[in-house]
């Protein structure tokens, strides 16, 4: 039985190479090539978002405000939600530049939530897993900086309005999407429910990681000019894939939880949402998020370092 592997530099003319289920050197080589192309695509998005944020948040006067903001923005771990925002924009034939402000704002939403959950306080249990953020500032500074990061992300979006392109309605819609996802209907709700001793893990993951990824996917599709059906399908995909990634992280800290069945069910639902994009190379890469293949940030960095 043959399986198809798509390799292409164009969304409109994918080239299909058939490999047989029997293991052989050629099929292994093709898989390696496919993985390398996948990693290259996601790494390029990550680099573009990183560059956009570096230009948007330079250390400038007053240093007491922008130095902590710069440090905490880049100390927070990366989220696949910002990459999904860019990929969703390109999937609906939008130019990558249209989604840069939104993808950066999604990362800022994530960074603010991460900062608030990992304040360097001494009167509470240590978070699990251990936070990756480096605490250079007192808790009061980190708390206030986190509070200021989200509106700064909305400011980036407002500045991205282009009268020549008449994109004001799309940008306004994206601002509303992000305000909802970062507030009491999204991430904050998940954070609040997580404080309970017997909280529903799936609900918390859906509200935190799920809503963030749904927001990223929907915003990318909106800015890229997607249809309402495409926007909603990508939003649903984001909810499922974000929840999956949240559950996978929860399983690391609490291996006694039986989450495998839930995770596999959500993966299947996520993949089904993208069936309408079948044959699109970018869609195939996005599907990899549901399979947990988006560990490229660390892997690519280590690989690049090994080449130096």
From TrEMBL:
Q: What is the lineage of its organism?
A: Eukaryota, Viridiplantae, Streptophyta, Embryophyta, Tracheophyta
Keyword set includes Metal-binding: yes
The superkingdom of the source organism is: Eukaryota
Can the keyword NAD be found in this entry's annotation?
no
Alphabetized PANTHER family for the sequence: FARNESYL DIPHOSPHATE SYNTHASE (PTHR43281), HETERODIMERIC GERANYLGERANYL PYROPHOSPHATE SYNTHASE SMALL SUBUNIT, CHLOROPLASTIC-LIKE (PTHR43281:SF6)
Q: Which organism is it from?
A: Castilleja foliolosa
Where does the record place Polar residues bias? 8-23
UniProt xrefs under SUPFAM superfamilies? Terpenoid synthases (SSF48576)
Which cofactors does it use?
Mg(2+)
The record's annotation in InterPro entries points to:
Isoprenoid_synthase_dom_sf
Task: Write the protein's name.
Answer: Uncharacterized protein
Tell me the segments the record calls region Disordered. Answer: 1-23
* Keyword annotations: Magnesium, Metal-binding
Task: List GO molecular-function terms, semicolon-separated.
Answer: metal ion binding
